[in-house]
Each structure stands twice: as C-alpha cells, then as structure tokens.
Amino acid sequence: MKAVFLDRDGTIGGTGGGIHPFDFSVYDFAPKAIKSLNELGVKVFLFTNQTRVGRGFFTEDELLEGFKRMEDELSIQSAFLDGIYYCPHKPDDGCECQKPNIGLLLRAKQEHNLILEECYVVGDTGGSDMLAGYKAGTKNVLVKTGWGEGSLTKYRTNWEKVAPDYIADNLIDAVNWISNDLKQ
Q1: Active site residues
Q2: Among 18, 107, 119, 153, which is most buried by a count of CB atoms within 10 Å?
Q3: Number of domains in the chain
C-alpha cells in the first residue's frame, strides 16, 4: 500500500507555525489536491508536530476538535484523510514521534501495512518534514508555502545533506508531481 503523508501547518493550511486548532484553515487549493490523491487510490495521512499541546497553549481535546473541523471542511469538497498522526509532546520530551524522528511514520506503516520506500512525505520544513522522510526512506516533496521558502534559504544548513525529490510551489504542484511519479 502506498501513502502520502502531509504536514499540516504551512502545507495544507495555516502559516507554517503552529496555531490554535480553532484558528487553522486549509488553503483554498488543499481540498482539491487531497481529493486528487484520494482519486489516485493512495492513502492520505496527516502527520504533524503539535508541541503546543505539551507546552500548554491548547489541550489535546481542542486539537482533536480542530482536526474534526478540518476534516469536515475537506469533506464538503469530497476530500478525506485516511488517518491523522500527531505528536503532542514538548520539544525536549525526547519522544520518538516528533519529527524529524520517524515514530509517526512507523506507526502508520504498522497500522496500514505500508512500504515506506513507496510512500511520499510532503511538507514545508526541511529540518523536520524532509529529514523525517529521508530517515524513513520515503520520497520527499518540499512545498514553498508556509516555511518552505525559508527552509530552502535561511535554514538550509539545518538539512543540507538531504535533497528533496521535488520542490513544489504548493500542494497542488506537489500532488501533480506525485501523480506523475506514480505512473512511472
């Protein structure tokens, strides 16, 4: 089974930085992009660091309610996620799930019988999203939305030994590349 793992903040919506789940909104083009992935028959998973839960900015219940609102917004345009994987821990908790660690990807692999080398990670940060994908052996697409531009310039040294398989303008561009790659 093949899958696409999508970062939340800066990739499917928001600004790139963690924001309160009730303030999060998807980009106008995100539902169409996710629906295109659904139609390709690949699993689509959200995978996101949500350290603000552990740091007390909002509760895990609020985060889950925010995910539900996001899924409701996607469903209006017939798009859906096959699962949501998130890390609620503080940055210094030493967990295995916080990107760039690959605990979220390994959990999805086990639960959905995935071959990670046949999966894709799409995100806006090189130092977490691209590094996690690299460690897990996925194909990696960096989007320029959110913190993507900064990841390619100011923060490139944080992940200089990793090259994304594709650099996309946004999620639509990323999905088009993935679609073409799947046909090869």
Answers
A1: 7, 9
A2: 119
A3: 1
